[in-house]
UniProtKB/TrEMBL annotation:
GO MF, one example: FMN binding
Alphabetical keyword list: Flavoprotein, FMN, Iron, Iron-sulfur, Metal-binding, Oxidoreductase
UniProt lineage: Bacteria, Bacillati, Actinomycetota, Actinomycetes, Streptosporangiales
UniProt keyword annotation of Flavoprotein present: yes
Source organism (scientific name): Nonomuraea zeae
The protein's name: FAD-binding protein
UniProt cofactor(s): [4Fe-4S] cluster; FMN
Protein family according to the UniProt entry: In the N-terminal section; belongs to the NADH:flavin oxidoreductase/NADH oxidase family.
Domain NADH:flavin oxidoreductase/NADH oxidase N-terminal stretches: 11-332
InterPro entries: Aldolase_TIM, FAD/NAD-bd_sf, FAD/NAD-binding_dom, NADH:flavin_oxidoreductase, OxRdtase_FMN_N
Length: 658
């Protein structure tokens, strides 16, 4: 992860009037960090200023609505009225104070904006609803109303200029309004705006006029829409080649549309920097070109810029996970990797500020990280899954003496099993990073070292952290003890070849992932789930490839809203909607029915009465997600720091569960 030669991405770049200190750009990213009226918050200022401090050359806020009916998220940033100017000015000043330039992306959601969020009926080139956004039928804009919208883009550009914004990007990508006018599937008009480029040209002219020549103005595009009947790469290139490029300072190439969201925020299964070949042709148009899309390592960024495929790289998740990525990679240092789990984007629809699975500080920069106490303590962490590793890392970073004991022969717990599935090729990176950081911090991680209640007394420590994970839950029903019934995680751990056929009982995250793995390895799979949908515990984007792939496999049969009520060697009694039926079922029965915290050591830990307390983290504390692991790790570190500073021990007495 370090020591990569990064000559090209470290060199400056000029985008019209803007001079970038390097080629690493913090891409526009909606975050739900604003007030509901679109005003900037302290949280937002701290978040962006942190990205600027981390070394990015240009820090974008997000797709910001130029008019209220174009708002797509509850806490999206607005540039719709003059009341937003002071907030924008705060952002600009904070980002510039850290040596970066500040950018705003001008947007209108068109058919993707929904009345339930914006309070307005959506408007669009044509009345084509957007199902992934909610499916509300938009009103077709009258010709004069299109001109009003052009004016709204111009007015928003003027506000940004007044606030001291350095760079404006017109959002012409991802299926929003400008893209809707460009698209043959979304623009069915017969007036002058039937010309797909007309709206874009007018918007570019209006924005340039109001931005003046001191503000860089660029255009973000989707290289293709990604669904049948949408814009192809060839047609998009043709349209953009004929646009008012003379008024622009750069192009930023992305991809996809709402109906092909996997191209907007690419899954971890897809290769890093996959959009670079689509960006390269645009360089022939004579403007500096940026590109986004899983550029999550210095190697991929450097290859793109040094290889002449783009002039700069736009990174969203990479810098969400580690704001210091630019500074660190330019100095040849390790960085915290984004694992492309898409938890961030899947939380966007909730209306709450978006988190990051691997960076508990993301969106909480305004609160600051836990301060290191003056006094140092000794801490024993039992268990080396993500929660144990991260707790140990943070505590060691505070200078505490930390030891980690793990009963298995390897670190990572059940997360390491998930990391072995082809859906999640990037997961292993966070475990590798944690382990490398512990090594760097001099923390001993002893694997193959089970801890028993009796042996705890050998460890004279100030605090104990129980990170022992969980066990698969096995419902009590006839036949559950038969030898072919195996917990899904135990089966994964065995690493056996795929059987000819099998049943997966439980269509949660693990059940669906394992069914997918077995099906792609050639098993005939019967998947039985209690809920009406597959993997209800997983967000839409995180399963955007895996669930359709599973359903398209003819060797996979899915029974939803069903429960197994009895097991026999070659058949199962399955209850669906009050009816019970014996279903033939050969091969192993893999059970994925949730996790029960493994807390057998808790009483013994408590009995030790360490002066700074006992803490239970991750699955052992009922946590579950990777995000929970990282957040609870930080909470432990904070509590221990507070306890050392003379504060009270966490509520709940000497043992606290995070
Ligand atoms: C949570 C989230 C919000 C996003 N919001 C925006 C946005 O407001 N405007 C935009 O042009 N792209 C947006 N994107 C797309 C990113 O800018 C970027 O193109 C994409 O995530 C691929 O880059 P990455 O692999 O570095 O994340 C968003 C991505 C994420 C993950
Ligand atoms: S939540 Fe997941 S995808 Fe999003 S930035 Fe963090 S690690 Fe990356």
């Amino acid at each position: 992860m370090n020591g990569v030669p990064v000559t090209a991405i470290g060199s400056p770049l000029t985008l019209g009037p803007a001079r970038l200190r390097n080629r690493l750009v913090s891409a526009p990213m909606e975050r739900n960090y604003c007030e509901i009226d679109g005003t900037v918050t302290d949280r937002y200022v701290a978040y962006l200023s942190r990205r600027a401090r981390g070394g990015a050359a240009l820090v974008f806020s997000e797709a910001s609505y130029v008019r209220g009916d174009g708002k797509g998220r509850l806490r999206q940033m607005g540039v719709d009225t003059d009341a937003r100017i002071p907030g924008l000015a705060r952002l600009a000043a904070a980002v510039r104070a850290e040596g970066a330039l500040f950018g705003v992306e001008l947007n209108h959601g068109g058919r993707t904006a929904q009345g339930a969020v914006s309070g307005f009926r959506p408007v669009a080139p044509s009345p084509v609803p957007c199902l992934p956004a909610g499916g509300e039928l938009p009103l077709e804009l009258a010709t004069e109303e299109v001109y009003d919208l052009v004016e709204a883009y111009g007015a928003a550009a003027g506000r940004c200029r007044e606030a001291g914004v350095d760079v404006l990007s017109i959002h012409g990508a991802h299926g929003y309004l400008v893209h809707q006018f460009l698209s043959p599937a979304r623009n069915l008009r017969t007036d002058e705006f039937a010309d797909p480029a007309r709206f874009l040209d007018l918007v570019v002219e209006a924005v340039r006029e109001r931005a003046g020549r001191d503000v860089a103005v660029g255009l973000r595009i989707s290289a293709f829409e990604g669904f049948d009947g949408g814009l192809s790469a060839e047609r998009t290139f043709e349209l953009i080649s004929g646009a008012r490029l003379d008024l622009l300072d750069f192009l930023d190439v992305s991809a996809g549309s709402y109906e092909a969201g996997q191209w907007i925020i690419q899954p971890g299964e897809w290769e890093r920097g996959l959009l670079a070949p689509y960006a390269e042709p645009y360089r022939a148009l004579g403007l500096p070109v940026g590109v986004a899309g899983r550029i999550s390592t210095p190697e991929s960024a450097e290859a793109i810029v040094a290889g002449g495929r783009a002039d700069f790289v736009s990174m969203a998740r990479t810098l969400h996970a580690d704001p210091d990525f630019p500074r660190r990679v330019l100095a040849g240092e390790p960085y915290r990797p984004c694992i492309a789990c898409n938890y961030c984007i899947d939380r966007l629809g909730s209306g709450e500020p978006i988190p990051c699975s691997v960076n508990p500080q993301a969106g909480r920069e305004h609160l600051g990280p836990p301060g290191a106490p003056a006094e140092k303590a000794s801490v024993l962490v039992i268990g080396a899954g993500p929660a144990g590793l991260e707790t140990a890392r943070l505590l060691a970073g505070h200078g505490h003496r930390v030891r980690v004991l793990e009963r298995a022969e390897h670190v990572g717990g059940r997360f390491a099993l998930a990391a072995g599935l082809h859906d999640h090729p990037e997961y292993r990176r966070i475990l590798e990073w944690c382990a490398a950081e512990l090594d760097r911090l001099g923390v001993t991680v002893s694997t193959g070292t089970p801890v028993a209640g009796e042996t705890l007394s050998r460890h004279d420590v100030d605090a104990l952290v129980l990170a022992t994970g969980g066990e698969c839950h096995r419902p009590d029903l006839p036949g559950i003890g038969l030898p072919h019934v195996i917990d899904v995680r135990d089966w994964l751990a065995r690493g056996e070849p795929a059987p000819a056929s099998c049943v997966v009982w439980g269509a949660d995250r693990e059940g669906v992932a394992v069914a997918g793995r077995l099906a792609s390895d050639g098993s005939r799979v019967l998947l039985i789930g209690a809920q009406p949908e597959l993997a209800p515990d997983v967000g839409r984007r995180a399963k955007i490839l895996s669930v359709p792939r599973l359903l398209a496999n003819p060797e996979v049969r899915v029974l939803l809203e069903s429960a197994v009520v009895a097991v026999e060697p070659d058949r199962l009694l399955v209850r669906t909607g009050g009816r019970e039926e014996w279903v033939p079922a050969s091969g192993p029965l893999l059970v994925s029915q949730g996790v029960v915290p493994r807390t057998g050591l808790l009483a013994a830990c408590r009995a030790r009465e360490p002066r700074l307390g006992v803490y239970v983290v991750g699955d052992a504390g009922g946590g579950g997600s990777l995000y929970d692991c990282f957040v609870t790790a930080e909470a432990v570190t904070r509590s221990i720091a507070e306890a050392l500073a003379g504060g009270a021990l966490p509520a709940g007495g000497p043992a606290a569960t995070f």
